[in-house]
Amino acid sequence: MISSLNTVCKLGESPIYHAKENCAYWLDLDDRFIYQYDLSKKVITKQRLKLQAPLGCLFLTSKGNFIITSNSGVHLYNFKKKKLDFLFDLRLKNQSLIYNDGISTRNSLYIGLSDRNEKKPIGLFYKLKNNSLDITAQNFPVANGPSLYKDQIIYSNSFYKRLEIYSKKQQKLLKTVSIKSGFPDGSCFDQQGGLWLAHWGAGKITRFKPSMKKDFSINLPSKNITSLCFIGNKKNTLLVTSASVDNAKKDLKSYPQPGNTFLIETKFKGHPIQHFDEKNLKMWR
Question: Residues 117-129: pLDDT tens digits?
Fold first, then answer.
């Protein structure tokens, strides 16, 4: 079953699930909103952030705060208090780069940076752990994804229409998978090791088996699907974000809900992502 939330985001992205609150959160990168969807009350709340657009991605911390990347740098945000604190900026004044997708573990942040014009392969992913800063993958015009499962980390190299599968421990490229339909964007794993992928420009999501062979796709009424994550007490509902930008009038016939957010009940359960421990931020402040 598919239901729709009437959000009409310009560029909805980076959904995450806060299990203790039973709330989902995501960003509108262009309009600088952070959204909250309370699954118990079925209520949407949004707050406009005092940051420069575009925003990049959203991480949940061990204390229930958020780390948000943006054109202003990397900030810590308390949703309840609406308190925003600057942390750092990895770009070192390199304004050719903008922040994009990322993912967290308890001790690490994987932060993607893209070419501002989305053409040159100058984008990369940084891994912040303790007091170290390492490059885990590079040569991305647009740095999308990533998703973690056991020793596997998968990045979406959207411009080149491929997934890049790395060994997390060895930081070694193991395999690439070509995506022929649209452009690969955000992704997430289920507990069986299946990868769920959002297709920008193709109006659908796809599940891949652990072998990375296509399992099935689900069509959606929005052309530009951006990202997704599992939410809910049973962890079997997908929340899928989309964008209203880059839609022509002719697209509305086939995709009448650009920018809306979708809820899809599945027979699969999500693979949980660890919340980043805030104590690891001390050396980065």
Answer: 999 999 999 999 9
How is residue 220 written in tokens?
A: 């959606």
Alpha-carbon distances, residue 258 vs 12, 196, 253 (angstroms): 10, 20, 11
- 3-class secondary structure, 62: coil
How far CA 231 is from CA of 17, 29, 32, 67, 105, in Å, comes to 6, 21, 23, 19, 18
> Is-contact 237 261, C-beta < 8 A?
no
Q: Please check whether residue 28 is in contact with residue 9, taking contact to mean a CB–CB distance below 8 angstroms.
A: yes
pTM: 0.97
Q: How far apart are CA 166 and CA 127, in angstroms?
A: 14
Position 226, amino acid = T
Say if residue 119 is exposed, middle or buried (CB neighbours under 10 Å; 0-12, 13-18, 19+).
Answer: exposed
CATH at residue 172: 2.120.10.30
pLDDT tens-digit map of 132-155 = 999 999 999 999 999 999 999 999
Q: Which domain holds residue 169?
A: 2-284
Could you give the C-alpha distances from 50 to 54, 77, 167, in angstroms and in order? 11, 11, 37
- How many Å separate Cα 168 from the centre of its chain? 18
**Residue 211 token pair:** 């072998």
CA-CA distance, 230 to 27, in Å (whole number)?
16
82: left (phi over 0), alpha (psi -120 to 50) or beta: left
> Mapping DSSP to helix (H, G, I), strand (E, B) and coil, where does residue 279 land?
helix
Does residue 228 contact residue 241 with C-beta atoms inside 8 Å? yes
> What pLDDT, on a 0 to 100 scale, did the predictor assign at position 285?
64
Overall number of domains in the chain: 1
Query: What confidence tens digit (pLDDT) does each residue in 216-226 have?
Result: 999 999 999 99
By the 8 A CB rule, do 50 and 284 touch? no
Is pLDDT at 282 greater than 70 in this prediction?
yes
